[in-house]
Design goal:
The chain is an all-alpha fold. It contains twelve helices and no strands. It comes from Gossypium anomalum.
C-alpha cells in the first residue's frame, strides 16, 4: 500500500515488520521483507540481523542463524554483544560448549566486551557439563574485567558444587558473594541447607539458620 501511494518503505518500516513477524515466529513470512529490503538497496542494520538471528535460534535453527551471521559479516556489519549472546545461548543449551567457546573467542578477538549475560550463559553450560573448575575460571575472569557476577551466576555454581558434594567450596563462594556486597537469596540458602542436611553437618546448618 505504501508503494502504491508513492512511499518507499525505509529501514525503520522494514525492521518493524520483521520484528513483529519474528515475535510471532512467522519465519517464512519474515524472510520476505528481509530479502525485499536488500533487493531495494536498503542495507539491513545490526538490529535487523539480530532480530532474525534471535527468531531462528528460538526456533532451534541454529545453523541457519549462523548462516545469517556470516551474511551479516560479509555485508560489513559487525555483530554486537547481543547478537553473539543470542547465538551462544542455544549452543550451550544443546551442550555444544566448544562451539560456544569459539564464539566467545571471536568476540574477544574483535574486542567485544562480554557482558554479565554472556558470562552467565557460559557458566551455566559449563556447570551442566560438570566442568566446574572451568566455570570458576570464568567467574574469576568476570571480576578481573570489572564485571560483577549476579546472584544467579553464583547460584548456578553453588548448585553444581553442592550436587558434587563440594559443600565447603560452595560455602567459600557464599562468603565471596557477601564480600562483594551480593546478598545470597532464598535459592542460595535452600541449596546450601539441602546439601548440609545430606552431609549431616548439623552444626554448620544451625549457624546458617541463625
Amino acid at each position: 500500500m505504501m508503494e502504491e501511494r508513492g512511499f518507499e518503505p525505509d529501514i525503520v518500516a522494514y525492521s518493524t515488520v520483521l520484528n513483529c513477524l519474528c515475535k510471532k515466529c512467522l519465519l517464512k513470512e519474515a524472510h520476505d521483507p528481509f530479502f525485499k529490503m536488500r533487493k531495494q538497496g536498503i542495507k539491513p542494520n545490526v538490529i535487523t540481523y539480530t532480530t532474525l538471528i534471535d527468531a531462528l535460534c528460538k526456533k532451534g535453527v541454529v545453523s541457519k542463524a549462523k548462516d545469517i551471521l556470516g551474511t551479516m559479516k560479509k555485508q560489513g556489519i559487525e555483530p554486537n554483544v547481543v547478537t553473539y549472546s543470542i547465538l551462544i545461548d542455544p549452543l550451550c543449551k544443546k551442550g555444544m560448549v566448544s562451539k560456544a567457546e569459539d564464539i566467545v573467542g571471536t568476540m574477544t578477538k574483535q574486542g567485544i566486551k562480554l557482558d554479565v549475560v554472556t558470562f552467565s550463559i557460559s557458566i551455566d553450560a559449563l556447570c551442566k557439563k560438570g566442568m566446574v573448575s572451568k566455570a570458576e575460571g570464568i567467574v574469576g575472569r568476570m571480576t578481573k574485567q570489572g564485571i560483577e557476577p549476579i546472584v544467579v551466576t553464583y547460584n548456578t555454581l553453588i548448585d553444581v558444587l553442592c550436587k558434587d558434594r563440594m559443600v565447603s567450596k560452595a560455602e567459600v563462594i557464599v562468603d565471596t558473594m557477601r564480600k562483594q556486597g551480593i546478598k545470597p537469596n532464598v535459592v542460595t540458602y535452600n541449596t546450601l541447607i539441602n546439601a548440609l542436611c545430606k552431609k549431616c553437618w548439623f552444626l554448620k546448618l544451625k549457624l546458617l539458620l541463625t
